[in-house]
Amino acid sequence: MRCSAGGVCCPRGLFVSRRAVNNTMGIEQDIAQWDGKSAADIDTVYQRHCRRAEFARTLIKLLKPESAQKGATWLLKKYLDSGGELQQRDIDRVYKLLPDLVHWESKLHMLQAMPFMPIQETALDTVETFLRQCLAGDNKFVRAWAYGGFYELARQHPQYTAQTRQLFAMAMKDEAASVKARIRNLIKKGW
After folding, report:
1. What is the distance between the alpha carbons of residues 27 and 29, in angstroms, rounded to a whole number?
2. Is the per-residue pLDDT at 19 higher than 70?
3. Angle at which helices 177-189 and 140-156 pack, to 10 degrees?
4. Is 54 exposed, middle or buried (0-12, 13-18, 19+ CB in 10 A)?
């Protein structure tokens, strides 16, 4: 796909200059050089690499090493948010790698990406275990999005609906206000 000014577009028409697309520096090196904080810098990494044929698969491979997780999960989430799609076998690989995620930011990014990744029967145990571990964590952002993960689980697999409703009811009594707000928004969406 071509955009104006001689560049190319990533999913959903994001403009990327030819120079960025032709950059030979590897995505692994770019993630390693990222400070782990600057959204502008990691977005530049995305812009530089998003049109490469193996972009998503490279990111999935980078979910394994702890040193690349924060950057790789941010980039994968951005890719999905921007209209990129994963093949089911790649989604299955992502779900298999959930137990390896160390950083809270990496967990948050994958929780936020779940609506874009259908959960197959073979991944149910892994996903449920990951979600429960996230609910037990200290970070309220991760907990809030873990409830969103249970919502996705119940929406795609109705056998989880009663359990998810029960988790929501308990959370409405005990959780932080921001987590309760997230749950209320999920409930409004319906099952």
Report:
1. 5
2. no
3. 20
4. exposed
Please enumerate, as own/partner, the contacts of 157-166 that have beta carbons within 8 Å and a separation of 24 or more: 157/119, 157/121, 157/124, 158/191, 160/128, 161/191
Three-state secondary structure readout of 161-178:
HHHHHHHHHHHHHHCCHH
Distance CA 120, CA 102 (A): 23
pLDDT at 177 over 50: yes
Look at residue 16 and tell me whether its pLDDT is greater than 60: no
pLDDT at 124: 98
- Rounded to an integer, the average pLDDT of 112-138 is 97
Long-range CB contacts (within 8 A, 24+) of 136-144: 137/104, 137/107, 139/104, 139/108, 140/175, 140/176, 140/178, 140/179, 141/104, 141/108, 141/178, 142/104, 142/107, 142/108, 142/111, 143/175, 143/176, 143/179, 144/178, 144/179, 144/182, 144/183
**Rounded mean pLDDT of the chain?**
89
The type of residue at 116 is F
159 burial via Cβ count (<10 Å: 0-12, 13-18, 19+): exposed
| pLDDT attached to residue 10 | 59
